[in-house]
Amino acid sequence: MFNVREDHVTSPVSGKDYHFFVIEANDWINVIPLTRDGRLVCVRQYRHGIQETTLEIPGGVIDDGEDPLEAARRELIEETGYEPEEITLLGCVSPNPAIQNNRCFSFLATGCRRVAEQNLDGTEDIAVELIDPADVPHLVREGSFNHALVVAAFYLFDHREGG
Question: Does residue 109 lie within any of the structural domains?
Fold first, then answer.
């Protein structure tokens, strides 16, 4: 899932030598999927790190050699069974550039319709929920959406060109 490397570097500012640890991980994707009738396809799943069930959008790891767009399509159908008519890149953020080397790409998937059953990994237990996109700001404020990368994806969605 990740590797940790130790870097020995000289600061370009102070000239002092430092040791840094970097978590090397594959890039990730998030998908904001909207159905043909404008509902948001969400996933609810247990997250062991915080020992809570969270409301999120579909997302996951980009496999080695996989294109981010293809990873977004794959994760969307695996986690929800929904397939989009169109999918576009909203933007990319660095989850924690102080200690991680990976990025998270956020996509908008429109015209989504259910075409398959979920195809979950062994540790995934995901319930699919359809919500009104107008409820997202309230759900962020009340903490229902509390995954920072999901909130970042909604920010990119709200501030997209032509949006």
Answer: yes
